Amino acid sequence: MSHHGSCHCGAVTFEFDGEIGDAVACNCSICRRKGSLLMFVPRDALRITAGEDRLADYTFHRHSIHHRFCPTCGIHPFGEGTDPKGNAMAVVNLRCVDGVDLDALKVLAFDGLSL
Fold first, then answer.
1. pTM of the predicted protein model
2. Strand extents, DSSP E, 2-110
3. Residue closest to 64 by CA, chosen among 75, 80, 78, 85
4. For each successive 10 residues of the chain (115 residues), what is the average pLDDT?
5. For 65, how many CA atoms within 13 A lie in the half-sphere containing its CB?
6. DSSP assigned state of 97
7. Considering Cα of 19, then 70, then 52, then 56, what sign does the dihedral take?
8. Per CATH, which fold does 2-114 belong to?
9. What's the Cα-to-Cα distance from 11 to each of 35, 49, 66, 70, 74, rounded to whole Å?
10. Contacts of 14 (CB under 8 A, 6+ apart)
11. Is the CB of residue 112 less than 8 Å from the CB of residue 36?
């Protein structure tokens, strides 16, 4: 199934393929501040449909995850990195995806602060 999303101002839009299951709430310093609910998909399942040239990038700590955000509205719709096996992954902020019933999601805690 294909899902669509955007930043708040609509300058950055994206779509991805996959079934939305459980969401992940990470407690690392940036995720805690952003309040994101995350879903991981293979990087090739994510397509940026508008604003790729506008995206800003933020990395910290190990610089292994690229936190992409819109410089106009400041929203972080997704990030990019690799999983422990080296596979390219995208992490989608489900709060930026159209039509997701956030209250219906099972939210799994992830201890990113300890990494």
1. 0.91
2. 2-6, 13-17, 23-26, 38-42, 46-50, 56-58, 66-69, 78-82, 88-93, 107-110
3. 80
4. 97 96 92 93 97 92 83 96 93 97 95 81
5. 19
6. B
7. negative
8. 2.170.150
9. 21, 10, 19, 7, 11
10. 4, 5, 6, 46, 47, 48, 49, 77, 78, 92
11. no
Per-domain boundaries in the chain:
2-114
pLDDT of residue 60: 79
Amino acid symbol at 71 = P
The total number of residues written for the chain in this structure? 115
The residue behind tokens 């990087």 is: 43
- Which secondary-structure segment (H or E) carries 33? helix 29-34
The strands making up 107-110's β-sheet, listed across from edge to edge, are 56-58, 66-69, 78-82, 88-93, 38-42, 23-26, 107-110
DSSP string, 71-86: TTT----EEEEE-TT-
Tokens 């310093």 sit at which residue? Answer: 29
